[in-house]
Amino acid sequence: MKTMHIVRGALPLLCVAFAVMFFSPTYSYAVTAANIDAGADVSLKTLSGMNGGADVINRAKGILVFPGVFKAAAGVGLDYGEGALRINGKTVDYYSTSAASLGVQLGGQKKTIIIAFMTDDSLKSFRKWKGWQIGADASVAVITVGAGTQMSSAVANKPIVAFVFDEKGLMFDLSLNGEKITKIKR
After folding, report:
1. How far apart (Å, rounded) are the C-alpha atoms in residues 123 and 117?
2. Which residues are 183's β-sheet partners?
3. Distance between CA atoms of 159 and 123, rounded to whole angstroms?
4. 147 and 106 in contact (C-beta within 8 Å)?
5. Model pTM score
């Protein structure tokens, strides 16, 4: 019962946090295909500049890029972002990602999520789902690369790998379980 009161009290704060994030002048919400594609280009360039990132991009059968996933939390956390699926360097579809969490959390953050489908089967399986959920519909290995670790060895033999980073670089100890990915029209 006490948890329900905390959640109800946190919802107005969460709404305010999202409003500030989405309507602030520094926020650039990717609402058009061109904006999503431009953000995906920048994100892939960032990944390719990391140790072994270019090799992962070149080997992937398809890459799903969410250049700006925003999370706001006040007891209840919600995140949302839009991205592009690239095959052979060209955008073929657009997707949204969203997730909710409950716990001790307050604040907001922006992150980039790149999901690389390393096999034809994993890409085909992803594209057949109308709503794909990480952890329920597929297991995704979140790659954290420390100093001296070669990215290509970290992704070896994994059909689906994900990279999560913010403006400071790769983020550590993250789980994408529960992220729901849905195809959208742009």
Report:
1. 5
2. 95
3. 9
4. no
5. 0.75
Residue 178 has a CB neighbour count (10 Å cut-off) of 14
Q: How far is CA 83 from the centre of its chain?
A: 8
Name the nearest CA neighbour of 84 among 19, 27, 39.
39
Structurally, the chain folds into a number of domains equal to: 1
Domain limits for position 56 = 2-184
pLDDT given for residue 186 in this prediction: 83
3-state secondary structure 47-60: HHCCCCHHHHHHHC
pLDDT tens profile 113-137:
999 999 999 999 999 887 777 765 5
Position 66 pLDDT exceeds 80: yes
- Report whether 43 contacts 65 (CB < 8 A): yes
Name the phi and psi angles at 81, rounded to 5. -165, 160
Instruction: Identify whether the C-beta of residue 105 lies closer than 8 Å to the C-beta of residue 77.
Output: yes
Q: Are 119 and 156 in contact (CB under 8 A)?
A: no
CA distance 76 to 29: 22
pLDDT (tens digit, 9 = 90+) per residue, 72-116?
Answer: 767 777 889 999 999 999 999 999 999 887 766 567 778 899 999
